[in-house]
Structure formats: structure tokens, C-alpha cells
Amino acid sequence: MHALTVLPGVANSARLDEVPEPPPEQGALLVRALALGVCGTDREIIAGEYGAAPPGEERLILGHESFGEVEEAPRGSGFKPGDRVVGIVRRPDPVPCPACASGNWDMCRNGRYTERGIKELHGFGAERFRLEPDFAIRVDPALGALGILLEPASIVAKAWDHIERIGRRSPSWLPRKVLVTGTGPIGLLAAMMGMQRRLEVHVLDRHKSGPKSALIADLGAKHHAIPVGELADLAPDIVIECTGSWQVVRDVLGLTAPDGIVCLTSVTAPGHKAEIDIGGLNRKMVLGNEAVFGTVNANRGHYQMAAEALIRADSKWLSRLITRRVPLANWQDALDHRPGDIKSVIDFTL
Q1: Is pTM, for the whole model, over 0.85?
Q2: Which domain holds residue 195?
Q3: How many helices (H) and strands (E) does the chain have?
Q4: pLDDT of 150-194, one tens digit each?
Q5: Are 263 and 343 contained in the same domain?
């Protein structure tokens, strides 16, 4: 069968390979791939910046945003042939740490976790892959091909879950306004989930027009195409930062109203330095009871929250997040980031 593989640590080593069928020890469910989402993490791995092959192997099968159809499922697994599924990305560490032992592997404390298509486990970028039933999420048939959005939506569901947990430190916390910075899939899904919570949603994006602007408007949110610093009077109760820009990260700190929460969802490259009035920032955050936290990955509960959020969403609006579908043979086209792209997908059915 064909699979998209890479030599981790070696830039531009990705290629379409002929690989063996996945062995049963990788999971009791045999899944036929229908689609594979592409994101910045995949591009970083292909650039040689990140990634690790399974022990004893040189190449890594790429892909962590999966969507497939079960072909084989043992009796008692809870699945049957024909079920549409998404695979959970992370696996708990072998020790395990207290977080992994309790099913919260997204909060692993010792870093010995593994991840499909990223760290020491083959990914979902193959014509067939295997899944353990405990790490498979059934996709509601009503969602159809939009099930490919479940993995990125799980990241956002976790962000919202933790925001609300932090907010409950104060029994009287009643957020009204949220600012989302960035309009990639994570940013737009974060805005969508904010609207589902009946909040006043503001979205920051530098483009004044285009498909992203239309998506923001059709969601019912307010679009801002100005520097973050010009939003000082907005005083959002929640900020969800999704750009990864060090300037935006700097500028959203201290931007919230009292009791506000800033959630950082993007990984920023190191090496950027800027002057910050640490005294002023510390004073505002302490006197305002403000909180800043980072979030990454998701556990099973977050995938389930994401599935519920996607089912509640307008499917026509969701479908506009997928801006390009390309066949496996043209996989390079999906990895190319083009103007106007939101989510590119490798479609195994084409």
C-alpha cells in the first residue's frame, strides 16, 4: 500500500512510499483512510524541524489528522465494519505519570508520550492504518466528510474546557466577550465554539476582505483588521491566541478585563526578543486576577466535546473551512500553503 513518509530531521525528505500492511499489534481495528488533514506541524516535520520515527525504523509515516472507515473490527470492540472513525493522536507514556494513568495523556508530565505521525508512532497518512478501540472516536454519519475537522476541533474543545475550568475559580465569573486572534482552522473553530456559548465574539485577522472575512461575518462575529494594540478598549473577558506570532502573543498579554483569561494555542519559534514593561504587566495581572495558560493536544473527552460541537454547527459553514482537497498522488499540493488557504486535505477517495 502507499503511504506518505519522511526521514525525521532531514528537510524535504518526504515522499510517497510503498509500505507493508499495518500489523495487528498496532490495533484491533483495520481502517481504510478516507482523508488526511494537513497542518503546520506536518510542514515543520517535513522541514526537518521536528518528528521521530518509531524505534528501530528510519522513516515515519506522516499524518495525525485522520478520517477513515473501519474495514475489520473484532467482536466486542464496540465498532463494526463501515463505521467512520478518527484516531486519537497521543498515547500515554509507559511509566505512566499520574496524568497519563488517569487518561489525561494530553497533560503528560514526563514527556515520554508518543504521538501518531509525530513522535515514535506511525501516522495515518497511509491507505490503511490500525487503531486500538480505546483510541478511536466514532464519527456521527450526519457529519460526513467533515469528520476530518475533528482532530483540530479537539484542540479547541480542550482550550474552551480549560478556560471554563479556570473561570470557575470565581463563582461569579460570567464572561461576555471573547477575542480570537488568527483565522486558521483553530481560530475559526474557536470563534465558532464561542458563538455556541452565546458570547460576543471578536476575531482579529489582518485581511479586510476575502473568504476568511466572509466566514467571520457569516458566523455572526465581529472582524477586526487592525493591530492588537488598537483593541485596548475592547477589554475581552477571554483571549484565545491562535496566530503563533510573537508580536501578537506579546500584545495580548494584559489585554483582558479584570478576571480575564488568555489562552495560548500556538507554538512560537524561539529567538524573538522584545521590550515589555514587566512591572506594568505584573501589576495589571495581579490586581486584576488575570490568568495566562498554554494548551496543546487533547484527550478522549475533548474529542467527544469536539464531535458534539461539530454536529451542532452549520455544516455549510464548516465545509467552507476546507479550501482544498487533493488526491494522494498530488500530496505536495496539499502541503503547499497558498493565499486564501484555511484547511487543505489529502483525499484518499479521489
Answers
A1: yes
A2: 154-294
A3: 10, 19
A4: 999 999 999 999 999 999 999 999 999 999 999 999 999 999 999
A5: no
